[in-house]
Design brief:
The protein has three helices and seven strands; from the N terminus they run ββββαβββαα. It is α+β, with helices and mostly antiparallel strands and 139 residues long. The protein is globular, with a radius of gyration of 14 Å.
Length: 139
């Protein structure tokens, strides 16, 4: 089985948005992550990301271009996942983030110095974050 996943790389100035998965999640409870989800058949990446950000965080976003892609297989090699990471911005900076507690228990806006505190060395989300901070520093 193969799955396509869209990942929202939500940023504001020099900070990156991450959320902590709820303890009731079967897959990776308590892990900090970039917001993501599997794309449903026939759904566009833009529509999914906008819908997911509204459902899970109560915010409206602007979808920009993808900037990072990675793939992996599960432990028994029965599922292959392709993750496409998109730049995402808040539509309005003063929006209040409202967590859907079934999905996430908390969120943070982190800096470059803090990123390794929340992601392990072998985590592709860490690599995406490092790449983004490098791109930002070149501007």
């Amino acid at each position: 089985m193969q799955k396509i996943t869209a990942v929202a790389f939500l940023y504001n100035e020099w900070k990156l948005f991450i959320a902590k998965r709820s303890e009731i999640k079967k897959f990776l409870p308590w892990k900090y992550e970039l917001p993501w989800g599997h794309i449903e058949f026939g759904e566009t990446m833009d529509n999914w990301l906008k819908r997911e950000m509204k459902e899970e965080f109560g915010i409206d976003v602007i979808i920009e271009k993808p900037f990072y892609v990675f793939t992996y297989t599960n432990q028994d090699n029965t599922k292959h996942t392709v993750e496409i990471v998109y730049f995402v911005k808040l539509q309005q900076l003063d929006q209040k983030i409202i967590l859907n507690e079934d999905d996430h228990s908390e969120y943070r806006w982190i800096t470059k110095k803090e990123i390794t505190k929340y992601f392990q060395k072998n985590d592709e989300e860490l690599n995406a974050g490092i790449k983004w901070f490098e791109i930002l520093e070149q501007k």
